Amino acid sequence: MPQNALYAQSGGVTAVINASAWGVIEAVRGHPAHFGRIYAARDGILGVLREELIDLDHEDPLTLQALRHTPGGAFGSCRFDLGDPETHPEQYERLVEVFRAHDIGYFFYNGGGGSMDTALKVAKMGDRMGYPITAVGVPKTIDNDLAITDTSPGFGSAAKFIATTVREASLDVESMHTSSTKVFILEVMGRHAGWLAAAAALAQEFDGQPPMLILFAEIPFEEADFMEHLNRTIERHGYCVVVVSEGLKNPDGSLFSVAQSHDVYAYTQLGGAAPRLSELIREKTGHKLHWAVVDYIQRAARHIASKVDVDQAYACGRAAVEGVVAGHHSFMPIIQRDSTQPYRWRMGRTSLESVADIEQGMPREYITPDGYGITQAARDYLRPLIQGEDQPPFERGLPAYPRIRGELLPKRCPSFEVDHD
Amino acid sequence: MPQNALYAQSGGVTAVINASAWGVIEAVRGHPAHFGRIYAARDGILGVLREELIDLDHEDPLTLQALRHTPGGAFGSCRFDLGDPETHPEQYERLVEVFRAHDIGYFFYNGGGGSMDTALKVAKMGDRMGYPITAVGVPKTIDNDLAITDTSPGFGSAAKFIATTVREASLDVESMHTSSTKVFILEVMGRHAGWLAAAAALAQEFDGQPPMLILFAEIPFEEADFMEHLNRTIERHGYCVVVVSEGLKNPDGSLFSVAQSHDVYAYTQLGGAAPRLSELIREKTGHKLHWAVVDYIQRAARHIASKVDVDQAYACGRAAVEGVVAGHHSFMPIIQRDSTQPYRWRMGRTSLESVADIEQGMPREYITPDGYGITQAARDYLRPLIQGEDQPPFERGLPAYPRIRGELLPKRCPSFEVDHD
């Protein structure tokens, strides 16, 4: 009897992570000689430690297939990293206990750089502890900061939502600017890398179109310079649309959204660059302004997913499984770009070591010299990633996102207290 | 020679106001015996006062047709009300001057309750000043607060965006809640009426689904009661999705988003109920939370427009013109609901007097007794308004929204200084 496979989701979820899940599930089932059953852990690696495993054979096949168009993490995700094997040996003993109890030989972990480190730890653990386990990563992150791969599933759809939203809201601002709003600020995610902010620039069809100013996490915020650019833009166009990364920094490296002097700004821990910037602009210019913070909405917007992104997410799930069947282990499938125009990509592989805990920033040459826009190279890179529409089915006016039942396998191990928070 | 027709947009724009514009333009052109040329004013009534008129015969016919799927106000809108005829006679003299110079006999004003008052003033002015003008309103507002009509074009699409977004973001929160975010807050527009907040509840398929708590502009915010509901929800579901109207009030009637004690919260003038609520919850519970403010995005989201809404916006534009051809004046087309299941509607008419400057709130019986949800009656009313999809064409990955050229007619009148701001 072949060993069973276990799939789990980790870190911030995306509009297409479930498409990867479906890729894994479908591919595992396509190789009955290689794999036994396919399980999913509830809430990522936490579910493995807690022995909360979902038997996917008990799910409605149509619901599993619908994962391809369902946002969020259908099996639950987690923010939890395994401890160091030296200091937290009990976690690894527990993993082996659970794997052994359910005859799990394959572990597919779907996440970003931190999750690839977890997958790597699981892979190494196996050999060390006499329970060989094939651990493989499946890439995912809206931040687009995974190394080696051309892009990360989840990014393209968030990018498409942001560019669409900027184009639409900018038409609104343009309509109103003579007698009302002069400045509109949109805050997007990206603590360290400004990929999502950069994607907003795809809304432009020609020079001078919104967004006129982008504030990247990578470029320290210089107030006087920004105000000068803002005023010049308003003089020229009558209004200004600004996109700001939540991770915008002050020149001293501190987070812009956390004010130095007023501790009431503490709420900005969770986004707040837009209201803070809005306050600053109001104080300095008196212009009427509006701001928006899209937060989770941008990474959950499956209704406007990029078809390229959905296809890549699904392909990454499948490639993880096919790689295992071909005899590989401790790897992460990557997307390789063969050509930009027309866009051609294929799947490749990289070692977990090469991506674990590494954050890939945006190259400086993707940002214009003045720091407020993106270059042609950035446009050429980004444009293919938002191509194609892939609408979910709608029922009674809204996208239909079926839910898995999530029935847990009977437990076979003693209970285990996970030390976290 | 028949007289010319003038169309203008007013107040906050919507995802479908241009569909009404197209309805007016197309219908006017369908009656060459009744109407001469069709012009549009730039920036609403301000453009009339400034004699900034766009000759639509100079626009690309395909661009005009594309108005049906283009958000924002293609001709520019304004926040400007005509003064009282007693105190501001010069404004009315100016209107007559411009109308006379361009032989305008028909004025179609597309806006909300305030704009209907402007249309009414224009209608009355004509008779008084010896230059008869047929003034007609075309309804529009995302707030759904126009009287008499069953709904207002613009609302259904904003409602569909909000319900979709709540459903999607809630799946995200649900995925993360065991080890991360427990509370997600979405702030929506609605200063006085909670229609948009109510629409969020359409995301629910059954009881207990997100959004678990809605804070309406109509129901005073009781902190202790809210916290109790929040805690109970988190105990039961593990997380809580809250939707809050920007217009939420304190028990004393003051705006919730403006803190009493800290003047640094002044920025909340433009939305800020979500960050403020977030701060309160964090202080009281310590839960990890996220918040989003969709602001203009919700009323510009043409990419997920409701087909019913688009059809009604277009029909309102056409009905305004057809009503004039049938000999009516000083009216606003209304949507009349003949049946809810199946949804059947037809166009009707009401006098401008009956809608000018009137705000129609949400009936109290649409809100559940506890004040945090909507009733079946509200669901029955709302559901038909978000039905059907009507995606715009996409080009290179994004919705294609062509722009009008906006070439102005040569001026024939002396310049005129508009006293506003």
Would you kindly provide a written description of the structure presented here, covering whatever features stand out?
The structure is a homodimer of 421-residue chains. With 421 residues, the first copy, chain A, is α/β, with parallel strands linked by helices. Chain A folds into two domains: 4-140 and 303-357 and 389-399, Rossmann fold; 155-301, Phosphofructokinase domain (Rossmann fold, 3-Layer(aba) Sandwich), CATH 3.40.50.460. The first copy, chain A, contains twelve helices and 13 strands. Chain A has helices at residues 17-29, 45-49, 61-66, 89-101, 113-128, 155-176, 195-199, 223-237, 273-285, 296-300, 307-325, 376-382; strands at 4-9, 38-41, 53-55, 104-111, 134-139, 183-188, 213-215, 240-245, 289-293, 331-339, 344-351, 394-395, 398-399. Chain A has a five-stranded mixed β-sheet, with helices on both faces. In chain A, strands 7-8-6-9 form a four-stranded parallel β-sheet, sandwiched between helices. A two-stranded antiparallel sheet of chain A has the order 10-11. In chain A, helix 1 links the parallel strand 1 (4-9) and strand 2 (38-41). In chain A, helix 1 (17-29) packs parallel to helix 11. Residues 260-270 of chain A have low confidence and may be disordered. The interface between A and B is large, with 83 and 83 residues. Chains A, B: The active site is at residue 143. Chains A, B: The record marks 140 as: Important for catalytic activity. Chains A, B: Its EC number is 2.7.1.90.
